[in-house]
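Internal tracking record. Fields below are filled automatically when a chain is submitted to the structure queue. Please do not edit lines marked as system-generated. If the sequence contains nonstandard residues, flag them in the REMARKS field before resubmitting.
Queue: standard
Priority: normal
Entity type: single polypeptide chain
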Amino acid sequence: METNIYAISYKLRRELQRKIFFCLGIFFLFFIVVSLILNFIIFPVANKSDSMSPDIPAGSFEFVTPLLKNPGRGDVVLLRNYKTAKRSVFSKFCGTFASFVSFGKWQPFSEHDLGTRPVLRRVVGLPGDTIYIDRYVVFIKPANQNHFLTEFEITNAKYNAKILVPPSNWDVDFGAKASISQITLSSDEYFVLGDDRLSSSDSRIWGPVKHSSIIGECLFLYFPFNKFRLL
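SYSTEM-GENERATED OUTPUT FOLLOWS
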């Protein structure tokens, strides 16, 4: 004798199917909404490098918004690397889904090579600025100003740059450049630096970055939780 009530009742089977499809629909709708938010409003970024230490250590996670692409002096931005490979729509979808279910900790289709993935850097020079660096100290003269000031005298942002006084026999041409000659930024150029001035790859090597290279502005560090801070 048949004891499965769903095999007996067509109405109950249809009702069960509707509940299953409704739950699946709610899940996918929620996923689509979150995916749109993560792609167009705010999204997590994993920092793999020590270039932004001590404030943004390697292994930390930050939230970036693509809505802010006109950064101020001292802001941290996510930059598009010119070597970054284009991803297919399928890989973007799978990557977004994996990031969504793992809260940004698993990004299987993202670039793992630090030479190709987008990087976080701090905006030091704005369009129109004239800049030079003398033994890791940055001097800036904004457009229409007559005098040079150091980066910390000219910005309201509070951050810690790793600027160590090198020993007398230090080779200033080793690693990141300790000094650069004066350059003036054009109307769509920014001068960016890593907070670790002794070893960071930044505008001292690449030169100024174009506005089109800015993916978005970094809002805050959220992991590790004990290092939470606005950026």
